[in-house]
């Protein structure tokens, strides 16, 4: 139906990422080929060290693959200059880091509005207030990160990724520090961002319930894609994760089996 990529926000082709040299070399991603349709919500799951954060960082242009191609909104990232890449990231991408990456000297409000100010845009007061309200931090806008709990800091990082209304939002375990109820609110917000606002969401998570908010789950094992689930439920995800863990323990040769096993 679609010979081009106009329906895709992101397309990865044969993405490979090696870290380190020779004896210390780690293959973080191996031959990853996949696409993320515009306005879709995808969860990425897999054991610790399977390459999830690396995949997100390569897809967002924060890190460069060793080989392979990343197309983000029609831009081949490897062909962009550093300035073009910075501009693309600033204007089109929101990123929630696994480690939050908040600036300690800035208040909550200043952290959240930083992307706008870096882009030379004036933060709209009402919008800032609404986003802080949505993540439950309206009462904390003048606090600094050190005065916040881990979950509150995580929500500042989420608000900061949403503030510029980016076309693509990457979120690395955005609910890892949140209690069940707050996590549900944030996941609902992300789902709403894809369904109502047409934003493309790519979220790493270890939690099958969080993954069930997505339209699709991609599984990674040892840097390779190890299957996917559409319209996931917490049960189907947990089931797949259990088997993925078992297969991963048996070594790389068993992965193609994991790939085929029990598609819904
Ligand atoms: N900067 C780096 N230098 C060397 N090796 C790295 C670097 N970053 C990641 N790696 C290695 O690449 C592999 C994939 O790491 P990555 O952080 O992508 O895993 P992950 O799936 O996000 O894990 P987690 O669930 O623990 O966050 C790991 O083996 C890791 O040790
Ligand atoms: Mg990670």
From TrEMBL:
Please give the name of this protein: ABC transporter ATP-binding protein
Keyword Cytoplasm among UniProt keywords: no
- InterPro entries listed in its UniProt record: AAA+_ATPase, ABC_transporter-like_ATP-bd, ABC_transporter-like_CS, ABC_transpr_LolD-like, MacB-like_ATP-bd, P-loop_NTPase
Keywords of the record: ATP-binding, Nucleotide-binding, Transport
Which Gene3D superfamilies is this protein grouped with? P-loop containing nucleotide triphosphate hydrolases
Entries under PROSITE patterns matching the protein: ABC_TRANSPORTER_1, ABC_TRANSPORTER_2
Give the source's domain of life in one word. Bacteria
Using the record's annotation, list all stretches that form the ABC transporter domain.
10-247
What GO terms are given for molecular function? Answer: ATP binding; ATP hydrolysis activity; transmembrane transporter activity
Listed Pfam families: ABC_tran (PF00005)
Q: Which organism is it from?
A: Amycolatopsis eburnea
Quote the cellular component terms of the Gene Ontology held in the record: membrane protein complex; plasma membrane
């Amino acid at each position: 139906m679609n010979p081009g990529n106009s329906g895709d926000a992101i397309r990865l082709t044969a993405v490979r990422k090696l870290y380190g040299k020779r004896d210390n070399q780690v293959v973080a991603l191996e031959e990853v080929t996949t696409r993320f349709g515009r306005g879709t919500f995808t969860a990425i799951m897999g054991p610790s060290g399977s390459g999830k954060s690396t995949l997100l960082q390569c897809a967002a242009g924060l890190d460069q693959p060793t080989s392979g191609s990343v197309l983000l909104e029609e831009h081949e990232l490897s062909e962009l200059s550093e300035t073009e890449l910075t501009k693309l990231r600033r204007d089109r991408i929101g990123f929630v880091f696994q480690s939050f990456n908040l600036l300690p000297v800035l208040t909550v409000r200043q952290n959240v509005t930083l992307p706008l100010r870096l882009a030379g845009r004036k933060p709209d007061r009402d919008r800032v207030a609404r986003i802080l309200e949505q993540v439950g931090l309206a009462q904390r806008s003048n606090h600094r990160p050190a005065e916040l709990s881990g979950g509150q800091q995580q929500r500042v990082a989420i608000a900061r990724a949403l503030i510029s209304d980016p076309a693509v939002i990457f979120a690395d375990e955005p609910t890892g520090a949140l209690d069940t109820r707050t996590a549900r609110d944030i996941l609902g917000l992300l789902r709403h961002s894809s369904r109502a606002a047409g934003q493309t969401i790519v979220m790493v998570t270890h939690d099958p319930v969080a993954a069930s908010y997505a339209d699709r789950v991609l599984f990674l094992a040892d840097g390779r894609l190890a299957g996917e689930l559409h319209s996931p439920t917490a049960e189907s995800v947990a089931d797949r994760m259990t088997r993925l863990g078992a297969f991963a323990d048996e070594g790389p040769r068993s992965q193609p089996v994991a790939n085929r096993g029990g598609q819904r």
